[in-house]
């Protein structure tokens, strides 16, 4: 099973100065920065996925600045992502619509011809049909109509989206054949239950799709994803050459359940951003470390935000609880003592005391702590003590941790947090390689 990383301009500045907390004055974002496969020296994934919503959006505004969006269409995804070195030859680059960006609209903003142009301009290897997300899921549905008013299905938004997704998929593959496109069309499955997803998969296979992507998986629990996969596999029993992809597989902790050889023989690929996102969206388990037995253990990164940029600290200064000068001293002491601990010139207790002293004004927003504040400080003490005692950044041999050392465990700014995320991608990918 292949792992695709869903890119969102996730690059870092290789010349970032951690002591000064700044990039060189001559840095040009994108041009001077490095993607995960560049800064590591190898790709921590089997391929990439790019959503149109990220590139130019359905209102002409995506995450890419306009000059970069124009360059993407001009040179293609592989060259733009600098994924064109010989060692990456043949690795897939999927494209999709970015259905999350228009989930609240009545109909998708693109036509099949719009998306074909986007995929052809981008030289994608695989292009997904246009879908409309269905988030509601009825677990253990006994029949196709369970969860839908069978007497008046057209009035149900889930059924309307289901029908629309299939209609657009049929038009898409028809137009792909007419255009003789250079990418493989991938039909997107949407449904409100395992029964409806199985029926959608069957219809897509009958249209001629040989690769199907299961959508709407992000909010589902592992048991619900298993139910959908089992039902889809059963429905496709007569189509031995059809492969499956899971869109937005955010269940990294349950990876082994899905990649066990033979369990889901049609499951060919997944995509996720979870390992990188958890580096700065998870408060407890945002640093991955491989274990000797091939699993992953997790540690809490140590938060040391910039005193002059933190909204919480700025409010504390405005209230007169702290002075900016004092916060800057505490910030500098937390960073300095943590680095000294890394070098072996400060003790664990000294590092922990400096870090927790700076954490207090971030947690206690009044003049004295509440019971909840005290509880949160005890939790931080326990988490940070575990991290400092284990020194996971010293035990990791990846290019990120080997070069920046303790900076990888500091939760502070994009260049540190994304580096930790890239490290997490590397650990996740190697874990997947061990499983498959």
List keywords for this structure.
12 strands; 436 residues; globular; alpha/beta; two-stranded antiparallel ribbon; eight-stranded parallel beta barrel; TIM Barrel
Gist of the model:
With 436 residues, this protein is α/β, with parallel strands linked by helices. The chain has 2 domains: 2-272, TIM Barrel (Alpha-Beta Barrel), CATH 3.20.20; 300-412, no CATH class.
What does the model show?
The protein is α/β, with parallel strands linked by helices and about 425 residues long. The chain folds into two domains: about 1-270, Queuine tRNA-ribosyltransferase-like (TIM Barrel); about 300-410, no CATH class. Helix content is about 45%, strand content about 10%. It has 17 helices and twelve strands. The protein has helices spanning about 35-40, 50-55, 65-75, 75-80, 110-120, 155-180, 195-205, 220-235, 255-260, 275-280, 310-320, 325-345, 350-365, 370-390, 390-395, 400-405, 415-435; strands at about 1-5, 45-50, 95, 125-130, 185-190, 210-215, 245, 265-270, 285-290, 295-300, 300-305, 410. The strands form three sheets. The protein has an eight-stranded parallel barrel. Strand 9 (about 285-290) and strand 10 (about 295-300) form a beta hairpin. Helix 12 (about 325-345) packs antiparallel against helix 13. The longest helix has 23 residues, at about 155-180. The relative contact order is 0.11. The model has no long low-confidence stretch (mean pLDDT about 95).
């Amino acid at each position: 099973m292949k792992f695709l990383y869903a890119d969102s301009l996730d690059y870092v500045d290789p010349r970032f100065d951690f002591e000064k907390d700044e990039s060189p004055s001559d840095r040009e974002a994108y041009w001077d920065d490095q993607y995960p496969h560049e800064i590591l020296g190898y790709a921590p994934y089997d391929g990439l996925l790019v959503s149109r919503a990220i590139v130019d959006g359905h209102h002409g505004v995506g995450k890419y600045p306009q000059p970069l969006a124009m360059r993407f269409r001009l040179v293609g995804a592989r060259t733009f992502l600098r994924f064109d070195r010989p060692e990456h030859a043949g690795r897939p680059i999927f494209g999709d619509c970015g259905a999350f960006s228009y989930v609240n609209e009545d109909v998708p903003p693109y036509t099949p011809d719009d998306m074909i142009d986007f995929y052809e301009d981008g030289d994608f290897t695989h292009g997904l049909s246009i879908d409309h997300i269905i988030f509601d899921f009825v677990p253990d549905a006994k029949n196709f109509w369970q969860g839908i008013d069978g007497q008046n299905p057209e009035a149900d938004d889930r059924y309307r989206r289901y029908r629309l997704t299939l209609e657009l998929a049929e038009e898409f593959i028809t137009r792909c054949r007419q255009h003789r496109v250079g990418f493989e069309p991938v039909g997107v499955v949407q449904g409100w239950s395992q029964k409806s997803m199985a029926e959608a998969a069957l219809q897509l296979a009958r249209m001629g799709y040989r690769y199907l992507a299961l959508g709407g998986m992000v909010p589902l629990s592992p048991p619900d994803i298993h139910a959908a996969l089992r039902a889809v596999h059963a429905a496709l029993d007569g189509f031995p050459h059809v492969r499956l992809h899971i869109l937005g597989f955010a269940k990294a902790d349950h990876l082994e359940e899905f990649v066990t050889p033979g369990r889901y023989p049609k499951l060919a690929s997944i995509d996720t951003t979870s390992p990188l996102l958890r580096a700065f969206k998870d408060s407890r388990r945002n640093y991955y470390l491989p274990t000797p037995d091939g699993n992953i253990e997790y540690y809490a990164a140590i938060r040391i935000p910039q005193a002059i940029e933190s909204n919480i600290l700025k409010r504390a200064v405005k209230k007169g609880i702290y002075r900016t000068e004092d916060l800057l001293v505490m910030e500098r002491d937390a960073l300095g003592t943590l680095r000294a601990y890394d070098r072996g010139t400060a003790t664990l207790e000294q590092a922990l005391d400096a870090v927790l002293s700076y954490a207090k004004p971030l947690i206690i927003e009044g003049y004295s702590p509440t019971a909840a504040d005290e509880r949160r400080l005890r939790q931080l003490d326990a988490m940070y003590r575990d991290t400092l005692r284990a020194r996971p950044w010293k035990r990791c041999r990846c290019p990120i941790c080997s070069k920046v050392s303790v900076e990888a465990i500091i939760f502070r700014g994009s260049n540190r947090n994304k580096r930790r995320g890239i490290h997490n991608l590397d650990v996740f990918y190697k874990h997947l390689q061990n499983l498959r």
